[in-house]
Structures are given as structure tokens and as C-alpha cells.
Amino acid sequence: MFSITLFLLLQFVRQFVECQNLSSSLSSPIATVSQTSTGSSAFVTNVDLTLEDFWDLYVGPVSTFSINTTVEPTPVPSSSLIPPPPLYYPSFPTGQQVPFQSKNESWKFPKDFWYGVAGAAYQIEGAVKAEGRGPSIWDVLTHRVPNYVVTNDTGDVADNHYYQYKEDIARIAALGIKTYSFTLSWSRILPFGAGAVNEQALAHYDDVIDTCLDYGVTPMITLYHWDLPLFLQNSYGGWLSERIVPHFNEYARIAFGRWHSKVQTWFTLNEPIVFCGFYPFPINYFKKTDIPDVQQPYYCGHHVLLAHAAAYHLGKQINDSLSISLKHNGGYKIQRTDSEEDAIAVQRSWDFQEGWFSDPVFLTGDYPRYLREYVSTFLPDFTEEQKQMINGTSDIYAHDAYTSDFIMAPDTGIEACTRNESHPLFPLCYNTTKLYANDYWAIGAAGDPGTPWLHQATDWVPAFLHYMQDTWKPRGGIAITEFGMSEPYESLKTNLASILIDPVRSQYYRDYLEAILIALAEGVNVVGTLAWSIYDNLEWGQGYGVRFGIQYVNFTTQERYFKASAFHYVNMFDTYLEE
Ligand SMILES: *[C@@H]1O[C@H](CO)[C@@H](O)[C@H](O)[C@H]1NC(C)=O
Ligand SMILES: *[C@@H]1O[C@H](CO)[C@@H](O)[C@H](O)[C@H]1NC(C)=O
Ligand SMILES: *[C@@H]1O[C@H](CO)[C@@H](O)[C@H](O)[C@H]1NC(C)=O
Ligand SMILES: *[C@@H]1O[C@H](CO)[C@@H](O)[C@H](O)[C@H]1NC(C)=O
Ligand SMILES: *[C@@H]1O[C@H](CO)[C@@H](O)[C@H](O)[C@H]1NC(C)=O
Ligand SMILES: *[C@@H]1O[C@H](CO)[C@@H](O)[C@H](O)[C@H]1NC(C)=O
Ligand SMILES: *[C@@H]1O[C@H](CO)[C@@H](O)[C@H](O)[C@H]1NC(C)=O
Ligand SMILES: *[C@@H]1O[C@H](CO)[C@@H](O)[C@H](O)[C@H]1NC(C)=O
Ligand SMILES: *[C@@H]1O[C@H](CO)[C@@H](O)[C@H](O)[C@H]1NC(C)=O
């Protein structure tokens, strides 16, 4: 009885909160909403929504871990720093371990090339309700939306990085890795996305940064990696509304203002193609919108470009020696046959993927041709002033370049698709496959079945890097800001020694870095790489069922272990980094 009554009450408050315009209440962590109901017997009421209420309404109880205060680093056992045997398998058994295959003397990474590892707040931090953090959309997606995460996992504990970051940074440093790229949780710093600042969160990130500096590890920060403060999604639809732009700007102002003197390299937003592609969200959990489903990603993208550009200029104003860039993704597009239709399909694919955000920030301030043809039917054109503001707002081309695809026209041809909104490939109107034109061989070794988008495709990396440089001409060069491999079936393994040998991932890093060395030898300006990921973590909709770490984490005990790939990664720099 009680629970049913409470449930109905919560449903009421929930609908109520969703339907209201909450912008006026954003100045305080207690959200007070006032609104007239829509029924015939209209009435006015107030709901005082504390942070705790907000969690209870939208997320419910969360899990915690036994280590729940910041802990000093566990010393890294020296035995765990012995490289795996052997790093290279000679073609003829010599009875000896060979530390590395013979070095190609034409290759080198320039002295200032940076190499590191990356992670993202919701995927690794855990401690989701600790020290005043507000909920993000991902707390709702993991807790409330059935089957959104195939394993039903949440980020409640994840890698417990929020409390164990000192150990995590010490371990990176012990391996010899010099860069750590992490992301800030917007809803830790601003629990309701805007308004009152949570000082505990600022103090936390102060110490993460200072710990990096103490260990000689360069921190790099990404402001936004998909964990949108829930309140902003519920107030106005998050990225669907231009109202996000000043809120993102305010958040960026706090971060740049506090950390610009200690952190030089910044990324504003991570992979907008992907997070804009999350729209439309599952209905009934977030604010409703009238924007047609198929158009929602492009509304999101529009506001991403405006928010990114505004934040870029703000950061430069605060300190013009910062390096600030948008973080892109996509892959090399290989024309599957030499037909003219497939050539057009390839260009459509560049335009709807990399070009969507890269043409505006590097070339024109505006969308590429095929994308513009579509979005101009419903989005407002950027004004000349907006184009000027957007153009030139990335110092490096930061690309999360995991893999590549073969691209071809739809079976129906392209035009039958662009003219037909019901076509399954509309509005992209190109098709992709991982199979060669013989429909027999895959492009390369497959990752885990949970990541069908990912096969090793390192043969195409040099061509891809040339394409990026020639097309978008980034003034500060190209950085591969994420790359990595989901070792097939890794999460099914229970034997520690088996888990720690990860041959598919090791090969991927070795081949990929060789491909970068080839491109460097050919004159492409690649300036850094970040391996994804620092360790196993919550792989979004795949939960902990897909693993990307160069370290294994036992999620029962939160103990960390280096995998063989960590040594393969570092060894390439030990061998090829210029003195
Ligand atoms: C919400 O409030 C803001 C600020 O008062 C206003 O600019 C905006 O038009 C309102 N939106 C709606 C849908 O009422
Ligand atoms: C922290 O964990 C301990 C057990 O390790 C538990 O007794 C305590 O209640 C926890 N504190 C908080 C604030 O969750
Ligand atoms: C996840 O939860 C849903 C609903 O609670 C349930 O139907 C499903 O079987 C669960 N999936 C797994 C993998 O446990
Ligand atoms: C500007 O940023 C750079 C890089 O982080 C830093 O070295 C410098 O001290 C900052 N300038 C000021 C005035 O703080
Ligand atoms: C965009 O900026 C680049 C330099 O960053 C410049 O070469 C180009 O002409 C600009 N494009 C437009 C349309 O203003
Ligand atoms: C897209 O390609 C797949 C093969 O990868 C094919 O089965 C499918 O029919 C194609 N779809 C369209 C609409 O062309
Ligand atoms: C549009 O696409 C749908 C789905 O593929 C198809 O059933 C329909 O016949 C197409 N309409 C036209 C006019 O081609
Ligand atoms: C993880 O830790 C648990 C608890 O100590 C242990 O039972 C399990 O074997 C460990 N898993 C691996 C792969 O070492
Ligand atoms: C060494 O690198 C150069 C430049 O990339 C390349 O042309 C050559 O084939 C490489 N040699 C070997 C043995 O791989």
C-alpha cells in the first residue's frame, strides 16, 4: 500500500518535473519549480527538489564499494613490471627471448611526441553519489531503462577511480607512460548542470591533476564525455536545445579558469557523432520533444558546434597558450568497387561522419555538401557570424581512429534513398561492410562480438593519416586520441594468467604504431597517441562484457594488473622515440 502510494506520488512529481521549464531554478542546488497544471481545474504548487530527491526520483539506490575514501597508492610490485615473454616471436626457435623485432632505422617518433592512456569519468570513476555528484543521463540509462545496457551493469562502482586514482596514476608512471587523459564529470562540478558549484568536486580534480604532476605524468582534460547532467536533459532536452550553449560555456569557464595553468591540452567534447547518435533517447525517461527522431542527431550536432566554438574562444581568452580541440571519430572509408556510385557513397560517408564536425571547425564554419543538403531542410543555416566563430576552433586534429570500413552505395542506388525518408539507410544513403568485395574475407582480425564495428584495419592507417592532413590541414598536427582493441571473449576468461596475455590487442598496438611510424616517415605530422584504455571499464551499452583495458581490473577486489599489451605499447616508444 505504502509503496504504491509512494510510487504514484513519485510518478506525479516526475511527470511534473519533466514538463516544466526549470531554467529559472538553475541558480541553486535546491530546484524549486512552480507551474500551473494543464487540467481544467488548474492549480499552482511548488516542489522543492533536493539533490537527494532528484536521485531517488530518477535513479534510485546505487551500489558502493568498500574502499570509499581516497587511498594512498598501493606500491606497484616490481615483479609486475617484468615484460611478458617474448615481445616478439622469432620465425625460427633460437632458444632465446628476443626483446623486439629488428628495428627499422628509417622510423622514429619525434622527441616531443606524446603517448599516454585515456579513460572517461562515467566509465571509470564509480562513487556516483559521493561528495555531491548529481545524476547524469547515464545513471538513468543504466539504472532505469531495461536492456539499455545488455549486461545490466552500471557505473556505480566501475573502477573506483574516484578513490583509487593515486594508485592508477602511480601505475601509469611505473610503466613509463607520460600522459594521462581523463574527463571531468560535469554533474560532479555542477550537480544540476548549471548554478551552484560543488567545491568538493573541484578539490577532487585539483588532487588528480596534482598527483599526475607529482608523478611526472602530463594531465590532459576532456570536458564532456557523454555524461550530460540529467537536469539539463530534463529541463530542455539537453543537446536538442540551443539553451545548452551558455550552460556548457559556464562549465567550461569553471574548468579552464581553475586548471589552465596546470593543464595545457584540452578537448571540449568527445565523439559528437556517437553521442548525438544516442538521440532519440528511450521515451518516458526524459523530457519529451517534438523534433522528429531522424532529425534529432543533427539538432544535437548543431548545438555541439556552437557550444564547442564558444568554449574554444573562452579558453583562449583565459589563456591563449592552451591547446583546445574537439575530439572526432570515424574511420577510413575504402571505396568497395570502382563504380561511380560507390565513389559518391564514400564522399557521403565522409560528409556525414568526420566532415560533419571537421569541415566546420577546420575549413569553413559550415557543413559539408551532402550533409548540408539534408540538414538545410530543417535546421537554420549558420549565420556568417556563427561561421566565423566556428571556423578555426581546433588546434590539433584529435581523432579517435579505431578501425575502417568498406563503403558502397545502397542496393537500391543512392537516389532512391535520398528521395525516400522510409529507406532503411536514410538520410545517410551509403552502406558499409567489413567484408572485401569478394564477400569472403574480413578487413582484418575481429574484436569481441560485442563490438561488431571493430576489426583491426591498421593497413589503412597511413592512408587515413594522409587523408586527414591533406583534407583538414590541422595547424597543430594530428593526434590519435583513442585507439584500442576489444580482445575477443576476454570477459569470459576466469584464469588470471590467461587474461593477462592479450595477443590480438598487443598485435593491434604494434601494427598501428608501425603504421604511424610509416606515415611520419612520409611527412604526416602526427603528434601523439592515447591508448584506450587505461584499464577495463564500463563499455557503455556493453557493460563490463567487452574489455578494452591495457590493464585488467578484478571488479570484485578492484585490484589492477598490467596486461601484455601495456608492455607492447610502451616498448614501441622505448624503441622509436628520438632521444
Ligand atoms: C524557458 O525559460 C527561458 C528563460 O526564462 C525562456 O527563454 C524560454 O523561452 C522558456 N522556454 C519555454 C519552452 O517556455
Ligand atoms: C564506507 O565503507 C565502510 C565499509 O568499508 C562502511 O562501513 C561505511 O558506511 C562506508 N561509508 C560511506 C559514506 O558509504
Ligand atoms: C536485465 O534486466 C532485465 C529487466 O530487469 C531482465 O529482463 C534481463 O534478463 C536482464 N539481463 C541480464 C543479462 O541479466
Ligand atoms: C597558461 O597556460 C600555460 C599552459 O598550461 C601555463 O604554463 C601558463 O602558466 C598559463 N598562464 C598563466 C598566466 O597562468
Ligand atoms: C576558415 O579558416 C581558415 C584558416 O583557419 C581559412 O583558411 C579559411 O579561409 C576560413 N574559411 C572561411 C570560409 O572563412
Ligand atoms: C547493406 O549491405 C549489406 C551487406 O553488408 C546488405 O546485406 C544490405 O542489403 C545492404 N543494405 C542496403 C539497403 O543496401
Ligand atoms: C521507400 O522505402 C521503403 C522502405 O525500403 C519502400 O518500401 C518503398 O517502396 C520506398 N518508396 C519508394 C517510392 O521508392
Ligand atoms: C578476482 O577476485 C576474486 C576475489 O578474491 C577471486 O575469487 C577471483 O579469482 C579473482 N579473479 C581473477 C581472474 O583473478
Ligand atoms: C623501413 O621503413 C621504410 C620507411 O617507412 C620502409 O620504406 C621500409 O620498407 C621499411 N623496411 C622494413 C624492412 O620494414
From TrEMBL:
Keyword annotations of the record: Glycosidase, Hydrolase, Signal
Any single Pfam family the record assigns to this protein: Glyco_hydro_1
InterPro entries in alphabetical order: GH, GH_1_N_CS, Glyco_hydro_1
GO MF, one annotated term: beta-glucosidase activity
GO biological process: carbohydrate metabolic process
Domain of life of the source: Eukaryota
Signal sequence, renumbered to the chain: 1-19
PROSITE patterns: GLYCOSYL_HYDROL_F1_2
Chain ranges passing through the membrane: none
PANTHER family: GLYCOSYL HYDROLASE, LP05116P
Family: Belongs to the glycosyl hydrolase 1 family.
Protein name: Glycoside hydrolase superfamily
Species, as recorded: Massariosphaeria phaeospora
